[in-house]
């Protein structure tokens, strides 16, 4: 399987094209085929990575400097594997979510294209190729957000389109600067050929500013909460778990692999860290003030992205950045699973109750036990309690901060965990409250009679039927107003619940299986042994 | 002043005009046009960079930034088309031409502003 690096991009791309040509009902099958195909390609890639370390693949045999090369190292491979696993979960969920809905016909080709673009980003060695994938991901995200079909979703899609185009234009200018001072676009070689000077400084500034806008880091986060909260649930999960990691991945390559060779990047590291700290505090406090479940989760994403940027303050001083890199990539990995599970759970709540108002969640623990359990388990990972994946990532970050004697960052990371605890408990406390007997809000159909009977048995006055009927009919009206929020009185489909549950448990159990992914991240890390040039041919 | 520098300067000015318009004007159509002006500025800068590092033998401009410009134009055109399509949908759904936070009055309203009573 020598051509595996290019096939992991081609398989989803061809499946996407086929899904546009074939009848829409075949699209899920194509997606399933893509999962099987890419899954079987990841295994030889992984074996090769373990056996021979990072390696280069020359597309069409051209090779650097004429062609665009792919380069696979531990971090890139782990991102590929994360994309595969998350898309498997989100695809399973979408199968039930879009069943019998016209939006599904557009969803599957877009999902497959997103997959191809992400895989291309994680294997490419060319920073201009990264620009192309960034633009693809931006345009695809806009289309996916608009699938919700509501005016709010259109507004969120347009806002995101403007922000994404501005950000990627900034990145393109930075790439042009990089090329003009170095004469190459290959990030593996850039480290050796880039020359010091104002050109390099400006390139790094432009690239970083563009990527910060695209990954919604604190003062530039304005587009994220509404975009992620107004999209359909599987799309929210996709955006919040994978899309924001794409631009962070490029930042990692820039700040750890490319520029440390020529610039004193540690001067700017604390500045990015401060923005990250601002994001943690601001995002968490905003999350605490939200009244809608999906907006709360979206602001939690703003906060969690802050951790990824605090990393830049921690990673700059030591000669060996491998521990910090392991910590932050593992943190990103477990955040992706936990956040996808939360958004998918919010979709189950919205579908079943017809709304996602936090104040009216009372009793949902009785109606949706597995979903609320998934909220709890994913929340444990977000807070960073053992043995979850979030715990390991956060623990390693704090460990680096303490070993570097950078106490301030350790405090920021710990306070962020406390705030995450506060907003996770805000969800759980609402969900686990007993529904008040007089309020008919969560109980429709047969359960209404049951609760009336039980309150009559306990000696309280049974609620008069008239207000209950009025209230439930107003609920139905509200549900009809929003196309995606149908208040089904039936329990949610099992596919929705179990896929949410599986992703939440993955985020939780990642902590127990952390050792191996951490070793994979270290393969090809910038501080680990001989790294250049990994230019053996792979034909 | 060389031609390349002149191109780069004009590119920077276009970029600044576009950026100011993107931030300051509330109308979505103007924002989309502003992004187009910004990308034109970016492409001019890229073209001038191509002239800055010519081929040592033939003195032809470097082809790589030109290839980047071509890709950028493709991206810019498709993004503009997409933005306009969504703007149309948004207008049909809400009757507005600006995002809610920019608070432009709904489109049919401005007719009244010319009269003294409005």
UniProtKB/TrEMBL annotation, chain A:
InterPro entries: CPA3_Na-H_Antiporter_D (IPR050586), NADH_UbQ_OxRdtase (IPR003918), ND/Mrp_TM (IPR001750). Belongs to the CPA3 antiporters (TC 2.A.63) subunit D family. The chain crosses the membrane at residues 6-22, 29-50, 70-93, 105-122, 128-148, 160-181, 201-224, 236-259, 265-288, 295-315, 327-349, 370-387, 407-425, 496-515. The keyword Cell membrane applies. Keywords: Cell membrane, Membrane, Transmembrane, Transmembrane helix. It comes from the Bacteria. Signal peptide: none annotated. This is Monovalent cation/H+ antiporter subunit D. Its main location: membrane. Residues 126-416 form the NADH:quinone oxidoreductase/Mrp antiporter transmembrane domain. GO terms for biological process: ATP synthesis coupled electron transport. One of its GO terms (molecular function) is NADH dehydrogenase (ubiquinone) activity.
TrEMBL record, chain B:
It holds the Pfam family Oxidored_q2. GO terms for cellular component: plasma membrane. The chain crosses the membrane at residues 6-25, 32-50, 70-91. InterPro entries: CPA3_antiporter_subunitC (IPR050601), NUOK/Mnh_C1-like (IPR039428). It is found in: Cell membrane. Keywords: Cell membrane, Membrane, Transmembrane, Transmembrane helix. Belongs to the CPA3 antiporters (TC 2.A.63) subunit C family. This is Monovalent cation/H+ antiporter subunit C. The lineage of its organism: Bacteria, Candidatus Ozemobacteria, Candidatus Ozemobacterales, Candidatus Ozemobacteraceae, Candidatus Ozemobacter.
């Amino acid at each position: 399987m020598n051509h595996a690096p290019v096939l992991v991009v081609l398989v989803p791309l061809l499946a996407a094209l086929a899904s546009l040509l074939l009848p829409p009902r075949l699209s899920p099958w194509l997606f399933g085929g893509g999962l099987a195909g890419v899954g079987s390609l990841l295994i030889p890639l992984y074996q090769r990575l373990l056996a021979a370390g990072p390696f280069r693949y020359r597309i069409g045999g051209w090779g650097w400097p004429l062609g665009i090369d792919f380069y696979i190292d531990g971090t890139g491979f782990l991102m590929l594997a994360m994309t595969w696993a998350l898309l498997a979960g989100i695809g399973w969920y979408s199968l039930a979510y879009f069943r019998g809905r016209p939006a599904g016909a557009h969803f599957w080709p877009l999902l497959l294209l997103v997959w191809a673009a992400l895989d291309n980003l994680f294997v490419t060695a060319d920073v201009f190729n990264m620009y192309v994938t960034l633009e693809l991901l931006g345009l695809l995200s806009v289309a996916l957000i608009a699938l919700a079909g509501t005016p709010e979703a259109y507004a969120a899609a347009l806002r995101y389109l403007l922000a994404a185009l501005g950000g990627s234009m900034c990145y393109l200018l930075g790439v042009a600067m990089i090329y003009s001072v170095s004469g190459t676009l290959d990030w593996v070689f850039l480290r050796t050929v880039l020359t010091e000077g104002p050109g390099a400084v400006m390139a790094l500034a432009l690239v970083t500013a563009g990527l910060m806008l695209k990954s919604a880091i604190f003062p530039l986060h304005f587009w994220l909460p509404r975009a992620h909260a107004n999209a359909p649930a599987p799309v929210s999960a996709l955006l919040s778990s994978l899309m924001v990691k794409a631009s962070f991945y490029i930042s990692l390559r820039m700040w750890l692999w490319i520029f440390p060779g020529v610039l004193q990047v540690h001067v700017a590291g604390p500045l990015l860290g401060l923005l990250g700290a601002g994001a943690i505090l601001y995002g968490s406090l905003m999350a605490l003030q939200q009244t809608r479940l999906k907006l709360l989760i979206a602001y939690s994403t703003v906060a969690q992205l802050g951790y990824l940027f605090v990393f830049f303050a921690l990673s700059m001083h030591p000669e060996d950045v491998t521990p910090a890199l392991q910590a932050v990539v593992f943190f990103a990995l477990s955040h992706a699973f936990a956040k996808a599970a939360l958004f998918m759970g919010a979709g189950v709540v919205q579908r079943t109750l017809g709304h996602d108002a936090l104040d009216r969640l009372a009793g949902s623990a009785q109606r949706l036990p597995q979903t609320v359990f998934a909220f709890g388990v994913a929340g444990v990972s977000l807070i960073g309690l053992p043995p979850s994946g979030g715990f390991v990532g956060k623990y390693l970050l704090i460990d680096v901060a303490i070993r570097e004697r950078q106490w301030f960052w350790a405090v920021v990371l710990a306070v962020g965990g406390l705030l995450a605890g506060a907003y996770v408990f805000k969800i759980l406390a609402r969900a686990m409250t007993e529904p008040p007997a007089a309020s008919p809000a969560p109980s429709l159909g047969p359960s209404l009679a049951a609760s009336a009977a039980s309150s009559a048995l306990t000696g309280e006055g049974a609620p008069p039927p008239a207000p209950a009927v009025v209230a439930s009919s107003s609920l139905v009206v509200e549900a009809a107003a929003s196309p995606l929020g149908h208040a089904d009185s039936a329990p949610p489909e099992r596919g929705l619940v179990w896929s949410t549950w599986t992703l939440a448990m993955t985020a939780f159990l990642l902590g127990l299986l952390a050792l191996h992914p951490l070793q994979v991240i270290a393969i090809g890390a910038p501080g680990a042994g001989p790294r250049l040039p990994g230019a053996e041919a792979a034909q | 002043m060389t031609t390349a520098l002149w191109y780069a300067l004009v590119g920077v000015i276009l970029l600044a005009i576009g950026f100011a318009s993107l931030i300051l004007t509330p109308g979505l159509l103007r924002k989309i046009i502003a992004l187009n002006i910004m990308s034109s500025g970016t492409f001019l800068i890229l073209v001038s960079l191509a002239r800055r590092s010519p081929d040592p033998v033939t003195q032809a401009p470097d082809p790589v930034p030109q290839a980047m410009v071509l890709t950028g134009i493709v991206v810019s055109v498709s993004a503009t088309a997409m933005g306009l399509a969504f703007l149309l949908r948004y207008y049909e759904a809400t009757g507005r031409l600006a995002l809610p936070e920019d608070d432009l009055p709904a489109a049919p309203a401005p007719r009244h502003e010319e009269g003294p009573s409005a």
